[in-house]
């Protein structure tokens, strides 16, 4: 499908098992290109374990013309990949865009998908932690209305300082789901 201007449409959906390797490569490449693996190179193993994330959370991919251009992990509190979310909140992490596809709206589409998913599940807020020096991500999230929440700040390893951001969401009348987020 194409957009009105004729460009192929960007689609965000759950990752498929056959895409795990491609998503692992683009995620590690994006983090490496951005300098985010310098203080903690072993984090590349976590980033490359797309199958593990997909088994415990929702890994969303942004795809255009059958090519994965970006990915993000969405989770609820208590999950294996939740770091800072509290009951009633959604959380996302490992947002990555293939360096060759940056500045094409891929990150925006993935963040919007996380916002939509959190709202769909009845979450009161969506949270994210970002490296203190990642000004581009700070601006991206700020554009969606995320605000700094210092109560979420933490450091997973020496030299890596993460700043917390929170986006309040309209509370729906249905409760937040517990347990697995989506069956694949």
UniProtKB/TrEMBL annotation:
N-acetyltransferase domain segment(s): 10-170
Acyltransferase listed as a keyword: yes
Source domain of life: Bacteria
InterPro entries linked: Acyl_CoA_acyltransferase (IPR016181), Bact_Acetyltransf (IPR050832), GNAT_dom (IPR000182)
Keyword Transferase on entry: yes
Pfam family for this entry, one: Acetyltransf_1
Keywords noted in UniProt: Acyltransferase, Transferase
PANTHER family in UniProt: AMINOALKYLPHOSPHONATE N-ACETYLTRANSFERASE-RELATED-RELATED (PTHR43877)
Protein's name according to its UniProt entry: GNAT family N-acetyltransferase
